[in-house]
Amino acid sequence: MVNAMKLLAHAPSVTMGVEKVTGLARYGADIQLPGMLYGKVLCSTHAHAHIKAIDTSRAEAFPGVHAVVTAADLVQHHGRITDISEGTMSNNR
Fold first, then answer.
1. Higher-pLDDT residue of 49, 90
2. Which of 37, 45, 74, 78 is deepest in the core (most CB within 10 A)?
């Protein structure tokens, strides 16, 4: 128990500190690979709204669109989809 308290008493070591403050650190969003696809999340403008239907035909017809995913495409756990953070949907697998 003493070792655990000793560990908690120290500040965590800063890795890549210089790279982060100088803007040289690379993050996942900085990586671009050939043939890479990008995603866009569109949320409702009405908080706690019950969305009855979504017409995705315009999005699907847009040049360069490879897929349009809605909640209907997600696997539901116990009959419902779980919102885990900032509109991120989880299928609880």
1. 49
2. 74
* Tokens 């989880």 found at: 90
Q: In 13-86, which residue ranges form alpha helices assigned H by DSSP?
A: 17-22, 57-61
CB burial of 18-32 (b: ≥16 within 10 Å; e: otherwise) equals: eeeeeeeeeeeeeee
From 80, 81, 55, select the one nearest 68 (Cα to Cα): 55
pTM exceeds cut of 0.90? no
Q: Which two tokens stand for residue 48?
A: 């706690």
66 and 37 Cβ atoms separated by less than 8 Å: yes
How many Å separate Cα 7 from the centre of its chain? 31
Rounded distance between C-alpha atoms, residue 91 and residue 83, angstroms: 9
CA dist 33 and 37 (Å) reads 9
DSSP code of 78?
T
Structure tokens given for 79: 């009959």
